[in-house]
Design a protein that fits this description.
The protein has 233 residues and is of the alpha/beta class. It has nine helices and ten strands. The model has no long low-confidence stretch (mean pLDDT 94).
Length: 233
């Protein structure tokens, strides 16, 4: 579904990505792991057209994404839950959900606001609340719901549970498991390795702008060197 080959990216004269290679299959949950500043967010931004790659290829279901504006990439079927949530602060919960709602791919069972509220009932009582008045957990639920309302084929989450209380993190992981069961592909960045190991089919570890390890949860759990050298576990 998503194929990244020899992806390179720069910020000015500083190179951030060095030949990133990874792939995600339909229905698969994959992760990007690694310490801060290793290139995970830059990889995501390169996929979404926020950062312009300086080399390599990014294709989604056979379509090249390199050079496309972000809105066209979203219309192809990629939904982003960005780091820091970035919901619209001066729109209500209801307005945040419907602002980007679409079904460009003509899915038979599209995500609707009712379906989002059934998954996150915490938002149902806050429909008229402005986005900037929500708690961090509510904002993350809303950010996930907003991305799902675009009815993507691939959902990307950058720091899915960063800064959230343990009970809220549990709710987010439960929601992602439910989303996975619908057959939606997911690429997730997060630091909660224990939860990621239960959720994901495949992991990619990024170190200084390169993918230095890829494999299953079982393989990662057995590779103590990788856990220690790249993740500090």
């Amino acid at each position: 579904m998503l194929s990244i080959k020899q992806l390179r990216a720069h910020y000015g004269t500083s190179q951030a990505l060095f030949d990133i290679n990874l792939s995600i299959e339909a229905g698969q949950v994959a992760t990007l792991l690694g310490r801060n500043g290793m290139g995970k967010t830059t990889t995501i931004h390169s996929v979404m057209g926020i950062v312009k790659p300086t080399g390599g290829t990014v294709t989604f279901e056979g379509v090249s994404l390199v050079g496309l504006p972000s809105f066209k990439i979203a219309n192809l079927g990629i939904g982003l839950v960005p780091e820091g949530r970035q919901i619209f602060p001066n729109l209500t919960v209801r307005e945040n959900l419907v602002a980007t709602a679409s079904n460009h791919l003509g899915l038979d069972q599209p995500w609707s606001s009712e379906r989002i509220l059934a998954m996150f009932p915490e938002l149902a009582t806050r429909l008229s609340s402005m986005g900037n008045l929500l708690s961090g957990g509510e904002q993350q639920m809303l950010a996930i719901g907003r991305a799902l309302m675009t009815n993507p084929r691939l959902l990307i989450l950058d720091e899915a549970t960063e800064g959230l209380a343990p009970l809220v993190r549990k709710r987010i992981w439960e929601a992602l498991d439910n989303i996975r069961q619908t057959g939606l592909s997911i690429l997730v960045v997060d630091k909660n390795l224990k939860d990621l190991m239960r959720l994901a089919d495949k992991h990619h570890i990024v170190q200084r702008g390169e993918v230095v390890w890829s494999g299953s949860s079982a393989a990662l759990a057995a590779d103590r060197d990788a856990l220690s050298n790249y993740l500090g576990v």
